[in-house]
Amino acid sequence: MELLKKLGCVFVILLTLLLTFLLRSMPKGTNWNDYKILYIQNNAPLTLVNNIFDQNGIKDYVSLDNQRVPIMLKKNSIEESMLRVNLNDISNRYLALRQNYFYDSTGKYMLYYIPSYCEKGIDKALGAIQKAGYEAGLDASIPYMWLLPVIFFVLVIILTVFAQNKLLFFMSSILPVAYITCNAFHAAAIAAIILELAILLFTNMYKRKGAVKKFLHEYILFAALGISIVTSFSAGVLSGFIFILVAAGSFCMAYLTHFVRTKRISKYPFQPVLIRTARNVKLYNAKVKKALPVITVSCVLIIAYFAFGNFLTGITSSGDKNILLPGNSSHADERLPGVEDYYRWNWNVFTSPYKSLNVSDDETETVVYPRFTDQNNEITRYDQVLKYDQAFKNRVYDGIDSLDFNSIEAVIKKQGRDFNAGYTDSTSYNISFFSIIMMVIGFCMLLFIYFSAMIGKGGRR
C-alpha cells in the first residue's frame, strides 16, 4: 500500500510538471475575438507575403487583396446591374470605408487578419517577413511578464525562512513556482499566493498527531483554497486545471520529501519525535503571523503591477511603439464602418432600383413597388413591401455567413453585435472583469485571514 502511495505521488508530480510546461500559456491581447492581426509595411510585395503564409500553414486569412463586394445578389438581377453602374457613387461609400480595416491609422502598414487556429505559424511568418527586410508585428504582442514569477519566487524564499519545516516547505513550493513561470497571469499569481499560505500551514503541522482533524476544522482556509481555484480559472480554463494538479502535486511532494528525510534519519542512533499534538500547537504561530504581512504585501504588488502594468513592464510592440490598429474601442471612428453601416448599405442596394430619386436614402424606411405574378393564366399585380426593420437587419446579419470569400464582415460578426469600431493601441492587453473581481476577492480573503490571525481567531488551539 505504501509503495502504491509513493508511485502515485511520483506519477502526479511528473504529470503536473509535464502538463505545466507543455500547456503553458502567456497573456495575449484580445483586440479581436478568434483573430490575430499581423501588420506589415505596406510596400511589401503581396506575392512574398502570400508565399510566406502558405509555407507556414496560414490559410483563410482576411486581407485587402482577397476582398470582393460583400453581398450576394442574383446574377443579372436589376439590383446587381444598378450596383455595378453606381459602384463609385456616394451611396456605396461603405465599400471604400471598409478598406480602412486593412490599414493602421496612418496607412503605413497593411493588415492581415489571421484565424486563431493558424496561430502556430504566425511567429515563423513574422520572422520571415522581417528577415526579408520589411517592418512587421503583431497586435497586442506583449512581452513575458517576468516580474510575476520574480515576486512569487522571492515570496517563496522569504516564507522558507519563516517555515518550521523549511525543506518540506521549499520542496512543496517547486510546482507552484513552475506554475507561475509558465502561467504569468495576475490572477494565477494571486491564486498561487493563497496556495503558498496553505502549504506553509500544512508543512508546519505535517505528521503531527491530529493534524488532519485540525485542518478539517479550518473552514476559513478551505474557503480561501476554494477562492484560489476559482481565481486560477479566471485566468483561463487550462490555467485552472493545471492549478488543481499543482495543488495536488505540492502535497504529494511534501509526502515524498518527508519519506526521504525519514529514511535518512532512520540511520541515525537518535531520531527526533514530535511530542506535541496538532491540538496543542497554534496553526497561526508567531512565525506565521510574521509571514502573513509578507504574503499580503505580495498580493498588493501583484495588483499594483496589474494596475500600472503599462509603466512597469514597458510594453512595446515589435514594430513602432504607438501603432493604432482597428479594434473594439469606446470611441468610434467614422473611418471604420460598423455593422449598422453595413445594414444601411445593404438596404440601399436592395431598394435603389425602386426608390424615388427625389428622396434621400437615409429618409427611406419603407419601399413599396409593384410586382406581377402568373395566377391561373392571368397576370396579377401585387405590392412588394420592403421595410428597414430588425427583421431585415437579422437577414443581412445572418447572410454574412453565406458570402463566398473571407470577408472583413465575417471578422466583425465574430466580435458580436455590440462591436464598436475604432482605433486601439496595438500593444493593449485586456484582462477580463471576472479576473479582476477574483483578484480582489482573493486579496480580501488574505486580509481577512491576516486580521483574524492577529486578533487570535486564526491562532486558536
Overview of this protein structure:
The radius of gyration is 31 Å and the shape is elongated. With 461 residues, it is mainly alpha-helical. Strand 5 (366-375) and strand 6 (378-387) form a beta hairpin. It contains 18 helices and 7 strands. Helix 2 (46-55) packs antiparallel against helix 5, helix 6 (147-162) runs antiparallel to helix 7 and helix 13 (286-307) packs antiparallel against helix 18.
Task: Give the count of helical stretches.
Answer: 18
Tell me the overall shape: elongated
Helix content: 40-55%
The main pleated sheet reads as: 3 strands, antiparallel
The H/E string reads: HEHHHEHEHHHHHHHHHEHEEHHEH
Distance between the termini: 33 Å
Q: Ranges with pLDDT <50 over ≥5 residues?
A: 310-320
Strand order of the largest sheet: 2-1-3
Give the radius of gyration: 31 Å
Structural class, by secondary structure, is mainly alpha
